[in-house]
Amino acid sequence: MSTQLWALAVAGTVVLAAACLEALRSRRARRLTVGAVAAPASDPYILYFTGDGCTVCRTHQEPALAKLGAVRIDKVDAISDRTLADRFNVYTLPTTVVMSAAGQALHVNYGYATAPKLERQLAEARGARMQAATA
Amino acid sequence: MSSQVVDHSALKVNQTGIVVTVLVAFIGSAFYKPLLVLIPLLAIVLLVGTFAPQLALFKQFYFKVLKPRGIVKPRPVQDRPEPHNFAQGLGGVFLAVASVFLLPLPVVGLALALLVAVLAFVNLAFGYCLGCQIYFQLGKRGLIRASS
Questions:
Q1: Considering only alpha carbons, which residue of chain A is nearest residue B81?
Q2: CATH of the domain at A9
Q3: Could you report the predicted ipTM of this complex, rounded to two decimals?
Q4: Which of B26, B114, B147 sits opposite A53 (nearest CB)?
Q5: How do residues A57-99 score in pLDDT, each as one tens digit?
Q6: Cβ of B107 and A51 within 8 Å?
Q7: CA B140 → CA A48, A82, B111, distances in Å?
Q8: What is the pTM of this model?
Q9: B12 and B61 in contact (C-beta within 8 Å)?
């Protein structure tokens, strides 16, 4: 039985380390891309990295993006537009980046991001914009 | 784009088969050690199924038994089968490595097998396929002929 427990501990540690790495990667990408990228827009928007071979993009991510309503979504082919994909350290598809109206990357989501999560991030982006405007 | 139709229910049945087999081997081996043999057997099933899809045990179980009887409904999706096959093969390779470790270092062997089961479960439950992402990365770097 102790063999099983040790194996569980080892596998759990690896999964935990992968989760931490993922969080770190996301934070690093956000820091690296602040102030980068795009022309100012009137509202926060989403950069959506996808590719031909990405099934989850079609089956999960695109329906989630469709639920967001009137939000600008810039679709980027991560294979053909490698410069932009590399700038955001896109290592998995789909990847969604919530951009502020000023063109700053505020949230980087590697893998499928649910509609409520994106809505929350967009609301934060709009809130930050309002605060900046009133300050 | 060379998209074909892939029945995602077959993939889900395959992932379920992997998770269940590893769990039976993992929990069962605590009480009856010979059940560990399920891990090398699963490695063989996955590897054989990668190179000869008509011999993929879980998928064939779906196509020959579950689907015709309406137990599992088909879910055809415009998709490419290569990333999924690659992911299955990768799972098979990891299970083969796990099998090598099972006798000298059972903790390592079981941990590797558990990781394969965790990844299969993540794919089953959340649609995140690590093997497909590795396939995408290799394609991006031109190491394999992936999505163009």
A1: A53
A2: 3.40.30.10
A3: 0.74
A4: B147
A5: 888 899 999 999 888 999 999 888 888 888 887 877 889 999 9
A6: no
A7: 17, 9, 30
A8: 0.70
A9: no
